[in-house]
């Protein structure tokens, strides 16, 4: 019965001359997300996108996919009638609405609703009845059929009517989209991703704001197993449901770790690791023309994430460092990870590079001058370059 899906997007970021770049990107992303799902066309009218569903389209899958396309505020499975533009006079318009009421009635699945309302929006200002008149006129017709009472506050059934250009669209539900801005509309960032709980969520947050996320993972193979890298790939695969294809850089980090643990104070180990990670990530960002780094840090969550240590770590890179989880509690982050679908993979007991050589009493108040001075005792630059040379790049597709 439903042959269309009406897609509404957020108005934020849509104003002015960028509006249609944004719309086109959303349209491309939707087309891509629904490839092979029996969608005949993705059109645009009056600040909405309209999908035309073919006979073979499977609604549950279409719905599932649309729920993962950033930029969609909400979407509605609808049926459509055309011929609105011809209706210049009240008589024919009322006749049209009579037929429409019959069709609405035929499409209401559960006809035993206790109350209802009609909610009309009129983009088509030439239509001879106002929105309120359409509400009343259709309301009376539906009442005759259902005998259900009209309840404008808490109706059991809402019948949405949108009059746009030559179309009238009817729908009964609004399904929430993921919000945000279309993937790829905001430029590139490089996310440092472990197989922990936080960094996949942090990456998701940046994708949600339209950034294309390039992933960088540091591993300690062969001291840690290949399985931990496989797990990161699985996490990135889940995140790739939200952006077309994901690039994952797998950086060998063991030699750097060995050098740091051999020559520098153990209690500062994590800080030197992180600084080295930032230096490598920055170089990758430069190659990729990405303009910021992203981490999953949350203030005070662990020793390396105190304010003093963040200050020392930050200095290793000149790029802006985005930490979208900085103010979140672990519980909130876990809830998000579950919603995104990465949690189950993140709690698997794989050894991470940073769980190696961890001191019992890490420094919580590192001093930048001291750290920088100590860092000169190792020759980091060639190690960083070698790690980059040995880095493998994978393209992770959603399917
Ligand atoms: P996560 O759950 O993301 O591992 P965490 O709370 O365990 O985070 P840390 O292990 O201290 O925190 O890591 C802080 C941040 O450093 C991570 O969120 C991530 O962005 C980055 N990071 C840590 N380990 C790695 C790694 N092996 N590869 C890439 N980035 C890493
Ligand atoms: Mg971690």
Automatic annotation (TrEMBL):
One biological process term in Gene Ontology: thiamine diphosphate biosynthetic process
Catalytic reactions on record: [ThiS sulfur-carrier protein]-C-terminal Gly-Gly-AMP + S-sulfanyl-L-cysteinyl-[cysteine desulfurase] + AH2 = [ThiS sulfur-carrier protein]-C-terminal-Gly-aminoethanethioate + L-cysteinyl-[cysteine desulfurase] + A + AMP + 2 H(+); [ThiI sulfur-carrier protein]-S-sulfanyl-L-cysteine + a uridine in tRNA + 2 reduced [2Fe-2S]-[ferredoxin] + ATP + H(+) = [ThiI sulfur-carrier protein]-L-cysteine + a 4-thiouridine in tRNA + 2 oxidized [2Fe-2S]-[ferredoxin] + AMP + diphosphate
GO cellular component, one term: cytosol
InterPro entries: Rossmann-like_a/b/a_fold, ThiI_AANH, ThiI_fer, ThiI_N, THUMP_dom, THUMP_ThiI, tRNA_STrfase, tRNA_sulfurtransferase_ThiI
Protein keywords: ATP-binding, Cytoplasm, Nucleotide-binding, RNA-binding, Thiamine biosynthesis, Transferase, tRNA-binding
Pfam families membership: ThiI, ThiI_fer, THUMP
Function, in words: Catalyzes the ATP-dependent transfer of a sulfur to tRNA to produce 4-thiouridine in position 8 of tRNAs, which functions as a near-UV photosensor. Also catalyzes the transfer of sulfur to the sulfur carrier protein ThiS, forming ThiS-thiocarboxylate. This is a step in the synthesis of thiazole, in the thiamine biosynthesis pathway. The sulfur is donated as persulfide by IscS.
Identification of the protein by name: Probable tRNA sulfurtransferase
Organism name: Candidatus Azambacteria bacterium RIFCSPLOWO2_01_FULL_46_26
Recorded name of the encoding gene: thiI
């Amino acid at each position: 019965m439903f042959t269309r899906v009406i897609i509404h997007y957020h108005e934020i970021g849509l104003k002015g001359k960028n509006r249609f770049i944004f719309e086109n990107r959303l349209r491309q992303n939707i087309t891509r997300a629904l490839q092979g799902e029996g969608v005949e066309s993705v059109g645009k009218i009056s600040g909405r996108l309209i999908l035309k569903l073919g006979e073979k389209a499977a609604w549950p899958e279409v719905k599932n996919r649309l729920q993962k396309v950033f930029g969609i505020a909400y979407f509605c499975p609808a049926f459509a009638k055309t011929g609105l533009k011809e209706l210049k006079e009240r008589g024919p318009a009322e006749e049209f609405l009579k037929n429409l009421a019959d069709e609405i009635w035929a499409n209401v699945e559960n006809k035993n609703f206790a109350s209802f309302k009609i909610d009309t929006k009129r983009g088509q200002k030439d239509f001879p009845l106002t929105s309120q008149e359409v509400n009343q006129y259709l309301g009376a017709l539906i009442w005759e059929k259902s005998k259900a009472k009209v309840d404008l506050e808490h109706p059991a059934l809402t019948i949405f009517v949108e009059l746009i250009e030559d179309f009238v669209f009817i729908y009964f539900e609004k399904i929430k989209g993921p919000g945000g801005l279309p993937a790829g509309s905001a430029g590139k960032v490089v996310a440092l991703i472990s197989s922990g709980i936080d960094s996949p969520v942090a990456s998701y947050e940046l994708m949600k704001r339209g950034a294309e996320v390039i992933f960088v993972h540091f591993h300690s193979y062969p001291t840690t197993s290949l399985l931990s890298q496989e797990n990161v790939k699985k996490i990135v695969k889940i995140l790739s449901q939200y952006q077309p294809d994901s690039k994952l850089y797998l950086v060998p980090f063991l030699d750097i770790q060995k050098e740091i643990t051999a020559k520098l104070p153990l209690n500062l180990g994590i800080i030197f690791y992180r600084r080295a990670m930032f230096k490598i990530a920055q170089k990758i960002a430069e190659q990729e023309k990405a303009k910021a780094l992203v981490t999953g840090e949350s203030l005070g969550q662990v020793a390396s994430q105190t304010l003093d240590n963040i200050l020392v770590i930050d200095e290793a890179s000149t790029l802006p460092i985005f930490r979208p989880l900085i103010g979140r509690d672990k519980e909130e982050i876990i809830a998000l990870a579950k919603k995104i679908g990465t949690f189950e993979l993140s709690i698997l007991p794989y050894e991470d590079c940073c769980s190696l050589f961890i001191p019992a009493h890490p420094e919580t108040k590192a001093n930048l001058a001291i750290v920088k001075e100590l860092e000169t005792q190792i020759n980091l630059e060639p190690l960083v370059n070698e790690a980059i040379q040995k880095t493998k790049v994978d393209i992770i597709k959603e399917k």
